[in-house]
Amino acid sequence: MDVRSSDSGLPQGVDLIPLTGHSDHRGLLVEMNRESWSLPRSRQQNIVYSKQNVLRGVHVHPSHTDDLMVISGQFILGLHDIRSDSQTFGQSFVVELTGDRPERCIIPIGVAHGFYTPEPTTYIYGLSSEWFPENDFGCRWDDPQVGIDWPSEIQPELSERDQNPLSYDEMIERFEVAIANRPTS
């Protein structure tokens, strides 16, 4: 399995895994996971449909890893590393995921992220633990401190929560408090 990670322009610990499709006259089969790949297990999986010109995020989670795969359409994935102990701390990245080129993107705890859909898009969103709103912090998608290079001149549709998020500094502070208070196993 070929994995693209931080050594090729992604935040430390983010993995982009190309998936192989097997097609014939009947259609296409793409293997999403195999036990031998040793990828994080999802405890919650969602199928998300986003209309054209929707932006979700920027969010960060102190309690779960995200596992993304676009089924149809396209999204622009903006990433911003807020982990002070990371080699890519403070850096921002942009990755395009499409249904035409199946890949899985694994986003570790502490990498803030948002998804922009320039066209109608369906994707699978796995989480390594169940989602709870109290463990989800966000800031404005276009906050200069995040520095994600979104496509120019977009005016995306946002959820009510994403229209009124925390400031960047508040997001970082709440994330760090949640990490410090996380139960140890």
In terms of topology, how is this protein built?
Blueprint (H helix, E strand, L loop, with lengths): L14 E4 L2 E4 L2 E4 L13 E7 L3 E7 L5 E7 L1 E8 L10 E7 L4 E5 L3 E7 L3 E7 L9 E2 L21 H4 L4 H13 L5
Antiparallel strand pairs: 1-9, 2-3, 4-11, 5-10, 5-12, 6-9, 6-11, 7-8, 7-10
Rounded mean pLDDT score: 89
| Global structural class | mainly beta
Q: Estimate the global geometry from the Cα principal axes.
A: globular
The structural domain count equals 1
Strand content: 35-45%
- SSE succession: EEEEEEEEEEEEHH
* Poorly predicted regions: none
CATH architecture: Sandwich
Question: What is the CATH T-level topology?
Answer: Jelly Rolls
What does this entry look like structurally?
The protein has 185 residues and is mostly beta strands. It has a single domain (6-19, 37-178), classed as Jelly Rolls, CATH 2.60.120.10. The protein is 9% helix and 37% strand. Strand 2 (21-24) and strand 3 form a beta hairpin. The protein is globular, with a radius of gyration of 16 Å. The mean pLDDT is 89.
